[in-house]
Amino acid sequence: MKIKMSNVAQRSVGIVGFGAFGKLIAQNLYGHFDLKAYDPRSDQRDVAAELGVTFTSLQAVARCDVIVIAAPVSSFEDVLTSIATVCHPGTLVIDVGSVKVHPSDLMEKYLPDYVDIVATHPLFGPQSACDGIEGLKIAVCPIRGLQHWPLAAFFRKHLGLQVIMTTPHDHDREAATVQGLTHLIAKVLHRMGPMPSRMTTRSFDLLVEAVSMVQNDAPEVFDAIENANPYSAGIRRKFFDLAHELGVELENNA
Amino acid sequence: MKIKMSNVAQRSVGIVGFGAFGKLIAQNLYGHFDLKAYDPRSDQRDVAAELGVTFTSLQAVARCDVIVIAAPVSSFEDVLTSIATVCHPGTLVIDVGSVKVHPSDLMEKYLPDYVDIVATHPLFGPQSACDGIEGLKIAVCPIRGLQHWPLAAFFRKHLGLQVIMTTPHDHDREAATVQGLTHLIAKVLHRMGPMPSRMTTRSFDLLVEAVSMVQNDAPEVFDAIENANPYSAGIRRKFFDLAHELGVELENNA
């Protein structure tokens, strides 16, 4: 089963979920594939047209050569059961969520054996990708079939991404620190109220920039990172315990 | 009492404490003033000579037109009592520490009435100033006399600094968040152990960069920021309480 991802003019890519991330995918795949998209919110039709994407039914999207699931976590299982009965043999199904263990299990469970699966996590969002995605990172977990090879080559050659080949468990273990801590600190700082902007140091400016990049993420993203990643609770407890310990130390020294 | 800081060729500046920050001051004032420095560690004599600074006694430094105290917090009172008996009328004494309320009180208490006092906080350190200090920020608190005017003009015109005129209390209130939080988060992350460097997001990279800028600061700096700033304990408690609250919320949702 050799799929030439570089010879893709005729290949169709169907995007399920046309939110901020679905649009980002469309912008970056435009010109490489025949693009279709489905979203339950029909008001996305005009935006899709502007981006050169055919807005259509979930059934039509599920018959594409490649299906990219960019739907909210809450609808993930419904999307899988819907496309499972429609997609044809050799189809490549890709997800793009922030956690990988649980969605990979679901894709293996619901999608028929004749469908190839690659779990991915683009380590960027609409905000960090505002100047383009070249040089940014994407984690790629091969789940079923061999299409991860041409897919990774496409990401490197045509999109200029840094590809990190990994497994769902290795991914989630590392992401629990990388994303778990960033979102946790961002949430706490957000609750502290407006941050000073006048008498700031370079390191504080960087800290504020870091957290502001994730503070506008959808609540589902925070929820997925903190609750759907099996390693997050451990990292979180460690952070809170060490913070508490430091607090006690400082009170005793005061 | 008009002091022309721009006409400074003959003016002498004495630096008390020739650690990393004392050296940074010397590098940036070189060519503007006749520079002298004192440090109890006599092995700093050669480094001083290389930077065009006369390494001398505390008494000689205390007879300069401007005295900059860049000594560790622990020796601050000793330095003040030593220079108080030597410095001549019209001398300008400046400190450069990370907190301002307590040191300002001490300077007012120990230094004779005929000495002018300006409390400053350069909002940068040797690491953030490695590419030069132009454009960086300095907080300036007038404490006694009028020499803060020519001093601020010198900072702006000759060093290219952004001058923030403030009071010790306003400074410490804002710094408790700016520096208190940065150092607190840096300390907790440091205790968590080595951070991932492979599968990182842009926001996590910024977070790591932010904390790494302060993780090499001297322990006295952390101590001053967390314990000598009267507003730090409140900010810290707020941070720890909100972190704990979020932790409980996430446990309940899990």
TrEMBL record, chains A, B:
<protein>
    <submittedName>
        <fullName>Prephenate dehydrogenase</fullName>
    </submittedName>
</protein>
<dbReference type="InterPro" id="IPR036291">
    <property type="entry name" value="NAD(P)-bd_dom_sf"/>
</dbReference>
<dbReference type="GO" id="GO:0070403">
    <property type="term" value="F:NAD+ binding"/>
</dbReference>
<dbReference type="Pfam" id="PF02153">
    <property type="entry name" value="PDH_N"/>
</dbReference>
<dbReference type="InterPro" id="IPR003099">
    <property type="entry name" value="Prephen_DH"/>
</dbReference>
<dbReference type="InterPro" id="IPR050812">
    <property type="entry name" value="Preph/Arog_dehydrog"/>
</dbReference>
<dbReference type="InterPro" id="IPR046826">
    <property type="entry name" value="PDH_N"/>
</dbReference>
<feature type="domain" description="Prephenate/arogenate dehydrogenase">
    <location>
        <begin position="11"/>
        <end position="254"/>
    </location>
</feature>
<keyword id="KW-0560">Oxidoreductase</keyword>
<dbReference type="GO" id="GO:0004665">
    <property type="term" value="F:prephenate dehydrogenase (NADP+) activity"/>
</dbReference>
<dbReference type="GO" id="GO:0008977">
    <property type="term" value="F:prephenate dehydrogenase (NAD+) activity"/>
</dbReference>
<dbReference type="InterPro" id="IPR008927">
    <property type="entry name" value="6-PGluconate_DH-like_C_sf"/>
</dbReference>
<dbReference type="GO" id="GO:0006571">
    <property type="term" value="P:tyrosine biosynthetic process"/>
</dbReference>
